[in-house]
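Incident log, support desk, overnight shift.

02:14 A customer reports that sequence design results differ from what the structure should imply. Their input is reproduced verbatim below. On-call engineer (initials T.W.) acknowledged and began investigating.
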């Protein structure tokens, strides 16, 4: 019998031309695109980023604060939101006044709060630093694609956010390795110019690196965006902050950026999943155990077994350390995790794997086990949000066959999923007052290809081993773990 691998080898290598969408989709995207490439622009490996003094300070500093705002001890600070289950949102903020209740008032009209939710609070100490009171309140159920107005702690300013849609189109902004530099501010300003439903961050947020006050300044920096659209994040190496015998890792990150891990059946805030519109998105932890005997590995198998590609045709994974990287920086650091988990993702027909860590941009073709494969995932490295460590300029040459586009610059990505079959990925260099779009590709979902049908038996075999019984029916699992589905 002809094998799946043999059939895959007979196909031509995947290329953007194979993913060319219908003309109508192209026209729709052209109308809705936030920014477009302008003029004759040098892109890719030939691009050399000019020194910062050439840039407009208005573009760098215009919309986001640098210093901590002077505010009342009772007023909310560092407000950000994230998905927290089916049609629910988690509101997180900090107060210096411990007496402020963990309560959120909200409604669909300005100044009118017909609904109230109570939540929980936490705090932590780190050497000589003591955090404020960190509030986490889950609100809902909420309507899809709707603007809500809310107030934290029963007083203070009014904020607003928009819930994601329940169906396509869906617009996702993506940025990694942010930090708190002028380049960070430029990147955030460019993201603000684009209409997006959610922002995804594959690790390395504040670059606090043990200096806890930098977590506070980062929270203030991102509040204008993070309080208005959900931010879904996973950890990077700069979130570790562990001190042997004194402090365990990720204490600050876990206290401040609580993600919906419990709602997705995970036992750790370092890995979880969620669903939005027609996409199932998995956030993996590069800095917690991931081998075949680990809790994360077992959870990933169980999570993949629950995915319904008819309901969520797009399957996307984010993690910090890239598996496919032709840059000299951090070479090979994701190899062990890839060896353990790539077969799982391949069997589940993951469409995209997005990573950070390397401070440059790179897009790979569909690839598996180091070779081009039309049933593999598109791998993207986007660790170039604007951190203080600078850019990773050196690439290996000649570049691998799977590497399509690479450039050492700061920027962000946008993934516009138009329907169950077509998505449009762009990467925007943050060079000017308007982002310059330098990479652009259409992606076909694997759910619309023959890969899932051909690999169905392989997927069932690998995932059923989770329960130790090859003949086990996976459906009952959904009765024991309530999976998160957003809007």
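02:41 Re-run completed on a clean worker. Output:
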């Amino acid at each position: 019998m002809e094998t799946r691998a043999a059939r895959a080898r007979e196909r031509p290598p995947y290329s953007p031309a194979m993913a060319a969408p219908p003309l109508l989709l192209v026209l729709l995207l052209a109308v809705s695109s936030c920014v477009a490439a302008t003029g004759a622009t040098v892109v890719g490996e030939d691009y050399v980023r000019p020194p910062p003094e050439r840039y407009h300070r208005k573009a760098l500093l215009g919309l986001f604060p640098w210093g901590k705002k002077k505010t009342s001890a009772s007023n909310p600070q560092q407000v950000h939101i994230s998905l927290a289950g089916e049609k629910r949102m988690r509101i997180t903020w900090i107060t210096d006044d411990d007496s402020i209740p963990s309560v959120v008032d909200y409604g669909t009209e300005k100044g009118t709060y017909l609904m109230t939710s109570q939540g929980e609070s936490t705090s932590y100490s780190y050497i000589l630093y003591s955090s404020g009171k960190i509030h986490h309140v889950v609100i809902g159920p909420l309507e899809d694609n709707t603007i809500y107005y809310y107030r934290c702690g029963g007083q203070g300013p009014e904020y607003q956010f928009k819930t994601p849609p329940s169906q396509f189109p869906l617009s996702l902004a993506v940025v990694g390795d942010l930090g708190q530099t002028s380049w960070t501010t430029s990147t955030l300003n460019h993201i603000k110019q684009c209409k997006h439903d959610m922002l995804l961050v594959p690790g390395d947020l504040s670059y606090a690196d043990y200096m806890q006050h930098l977590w506070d300044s980062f929270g203030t920096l991102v509040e204008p965006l993070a309080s208005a659209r959900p931010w879904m994040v996973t950890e990077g190496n700069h979130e570790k902050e562990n001190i042997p015998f004194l402090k365990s890792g990720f204490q600050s990150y876990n206290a401040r950026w609580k993600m919906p891990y419990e709602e997705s059946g995970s036992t750790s805030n370092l890995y979880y999943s969620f669903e939005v519109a027609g996409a199932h998105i998995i956030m993996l932890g590069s800095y917690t155990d991931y081998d075949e005997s680990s809790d994360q590995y077992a959870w990933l198998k169980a999570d993949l077994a629950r995915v319904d590609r008819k309901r969520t045709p797009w399957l996307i994974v984010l993690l910090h350390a890239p598996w496919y990287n032709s840059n000299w920086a951090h070479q090979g650091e994701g190899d062990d995790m890839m060896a353990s988990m790539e077969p799982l993702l391949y069997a589940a027909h993951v469409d995209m794997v997005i990573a950070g860590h390397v401070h440059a941009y790179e897009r790979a073709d569909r690839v598996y086990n180091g070779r081009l494969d039309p049933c593999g995932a598109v791998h993207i490295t986007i660790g170039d949000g604007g951190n203080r460590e600078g850019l990773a300029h050196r690439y290996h040459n000649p570049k691998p066959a799977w590497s399509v586009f690479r450039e050492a610059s700061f920027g962000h990505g946008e993934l516009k999923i138009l329907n169950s079959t077509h998505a449009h990925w762009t990467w925007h260099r943050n060079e000017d007052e308007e982002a310059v779009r330098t990479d652009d590709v259409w992606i076909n979902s694997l759910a619309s290809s023959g890969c899932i049908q051909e690999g169905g038996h392989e997927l069932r075999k690998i995932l059923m081993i989770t329960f130790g019984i090859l003949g086990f029916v996976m459906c009952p699992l959904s009765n024991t773990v309530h999976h998160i589905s957003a809007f």
